[in-house]
Amino acid sequence: MNSLRAIIVDDESLARRGLALRLQQIPKVDVIAECANGQQALEAIAEHSPDLVFLDIQMPGIDGFEVIRQLQTDNLPMVIFVTAFDQYAVDAFKVHAVDYVLKPIDDDRLHEAIDRAVAHHSQEEAERSKQRLMDLMMGMTGVSAASIEEMVQGDSEPTQWPEKLVVKDGSDIHLIKVADIHWVDAAGDYMCIHAGGETHIMRITMKQLEAMLNPARFLRIHRSTIINSDYISGAHTLGNGEYMLSLEGGAQLKVSRGFRDRVRQLLGA
Length: 269
Prior knowledge:
By secondary structure, this protein is of the alpha/beta class. It has 2 domains: about 5-120, Rossmann fold; about 165-265, CATH 2.40.50.1020. Helices cover about 35% and strands about 30% of the residues. The protein has helices spanning about 15-25, 40-50, 65-70, 90-95, 105-140, 145-155, 205-210, 260-265; strands spanning about 5-10, 30-35, 50-55, 80-85, 100, 165-170, 170-175, 180-185, 190-195, 200-205, 220, 225-230, 230-240, 240-245, 250-255. The strands form 4 sheets. The chain has a 5-stranded parallel β-sheet, sandwiched between helices. A 5-stranded antiparallel β-sheet has the order 10-9-8-12-11. Strands 13-14-15 form a 3-stranded antiparallel β-sheet, with no helix packed on it.
């Protein structure tokens, strides 16, 4: 596998240099740029289209979260937040961070975060390859994507989908009805589960959670987002075949290009 092309963003020069020196020892990462503030980060991401950004949160002017907010969803690289403050962890998960590493950086923790990014990137590549193959097969056969999936899967036995998810919150345990889940945001090994007007944090990978949810109801619309199609209240196009979905309760979620065909099929578009 090729190294992940990465950008370091931190307003402290010593912190940037220290992280760059550590990453030089990790073949999985190739640092292509360093930025001292949020504006430089936006410009470097637009110019280089990196796979991964090591992003500080507290910076003068445009902070780390604002950098994420100003990026287009389809141009959003994987993000590992590197910060001295732990109070932003939940917010980091909500903006799809791959991981959240505290300063001073522990080498083992850094390697763990990079391994997650590599696994995440490999999964994305596999999904893109699968989509290209599906497009080719549909073009050659005229058969729908759903029919091709059915033929590939064969006559498998029906799966029993759980009715509730168990979420641990410190000493408390919450049972969340799967039917009440509106959508799920992913960040590394943590999921933000939006259900019944509340958000619950669950330590589980996207792949593991997706395997627990009935695909007849739950739909992947982004590498880090799953929605419950029962709660879709509307959709509108954004141009270039992209969609913004509206959910009951007011949430607005963008469909990334890699998943738009499945949404088109669902909407009959």
